[in-house]
Amino acid sequence: MTNQEVKVFSAMESSFGKRVEIALKMKGVEYEHVAEDLSNKSAELLMYNPIHKKVPVFLHNGRPIVESLVILEYIDETWKSGKSILPKDPYERAASRFWANFIDSKVLDALTKIYRSKGEDQDATEELGELLSILENELKDQKFFGGESIGLVDIVADLIALWLDVIQEGLGIEIFTQQTHPKLFKWSEEYMNCSIIKETLPPRADLLAHYFRSAYASK
Amino acid sequence: MTNQEVKVFSAMESSFGKRVEIALKMKGVEYEHVAEDLSNKSAELLMYNPIHKKVPVFLHNGRPIVESLVILEYIDETWKSGKSILPKDPYERAASRFWANFIDSKVLDALTKIYRSKGEDQDATEELGELLSILENELKDQKFFGGESIGLVDIVADLIALWLDVIQEGLGIEIFTQQTHPKLFKWSEEYMNCSIIKETLPPRADLLAHYFRSAYASK
């Protein structure tokens, strides 16, 4: 496939947008990145995603697709070249979808509560620690959730590898460390060391500055 | 494939469990139904779904899969015979997943608020009316969301065709009628008339009795 229009509307601070860029790089698909200001979203973004009004919006030859997990499945089904995002076996595919949903519902909910409470929601802190233990257990002794190379669950879990890490530094709390979750911590180091990840995710310092610039400036 | 063990752990009142049974019937797959009492879940259910502790649990040759949308994708990928649940085209598949998620997040949230408030949450009532208008618009002039025959979005939307209908009757409110949403209402009649749906969904009266037996007995 050549002469295709592939655009990603996203923002530096969006973990969900970065997922789409990582998937496109895994497939070797060139794309145009359209930077959105999430406090003042573009008319184009709102036109393409009138229901959720969120990034990422993925545009392929003029047709929009929204919601990061839906986009990742689309990319995997459309570009057969490059690395697979989901496994081939139906049972393993189901397991990957389950864990991706687990991170996007339970882990994200707890993380959001912690961020909004400035780290003072003890129940959420405790819950997140337990959820990470469940993921650590699921990882077993694999290098990645996808096995020897990254796949759907790893891409979705960058919410843990980078965003959680930044949030706990910004708030001065410790939920996820080498001591609390040794296997998952090792995973996060391996993940952040992948060349595609390094070239796609924003610098830690920029993300830290972004998340703690306004709401936490006076803390 | 023969001599397979296919079990569905579910309950009469679970829309999510019924989805799995409908999908299996579309594929012509025989299965054993294990009836769960949701107020006293079995040890087997909790063993197979330790994280969410919910129905449905789908068991295929001893291996459990949970979450109805994950199970529906698994069934479609595993049994190629019978009717397709998702479309073949990647863009249409993405659209189906989007609308299934829309129903399971926004529509379900509003419906839950209405049920819990005994119909007194006016904001939720208004919101649900608007969400149904969005679905009505998406249906266009098709017979089903899946086109000429039912597919993923139709199966997921039985939350509207039967459950919403029962809840509004039980509460004595009118959100979804032939007047408010004529195309979607016609869809719900067509859907409820499909032979597979008729033989799978519980009788309206049983569902009504179940949902309004305890909490609303004194209303």
UniProtKB/TrEMBL annotation, chains A, B:
Stretches assigned to the GST N-terminal domain: 4-83
Keywords assigned: Transferase
The keyword Cell membrane appears for this protein: no
Pfam families, sorted: GST_C, GST_N
Alphabetized SUPFAM superfamilies for the sequence: GST C-terminal domain-like, Thioredoxin-like
Molecular-function GO terms, alphabetical: glutathione transferase activity
The EC number(s) this enzyme carries: 2.5.1.18
Enzyme class: transferase
InterPro entries xrefs: Glutathione-S-Trfase_C-like, Glutathione-S-Trfase_C_sf, Glutathione_S-Trfase, Glutathione_S-Trfase_N, GST_C, GST_C_Tau, Omega/Tau-like, Thioredoxin-like_sf
Keyword Transferase among UniProt keywords: yes
GO CC annotation: cytoplasm
Superkingdom of the organism of origin: Eukaryota
Entry's Gene Ontology BP terms: glutathione metabolic process
Catalytic activity entry: RX + glutathione = an S-substituted glutathione + a halide anion + H(+)
Domain GST C-terminal: 89-212
Signal peptide: none
Family the entry assigns: Belongs to the GST superfamily. HSP26 family.
Name used for this protein in its record: Probable glutathione S-transferase
Protein's organism: Daucus carota subsp. sativus (Carrot)
Lineage of origin: Eukaryota, Viridiplantae, Streptophyta, Embryophyta, Tracheophyta
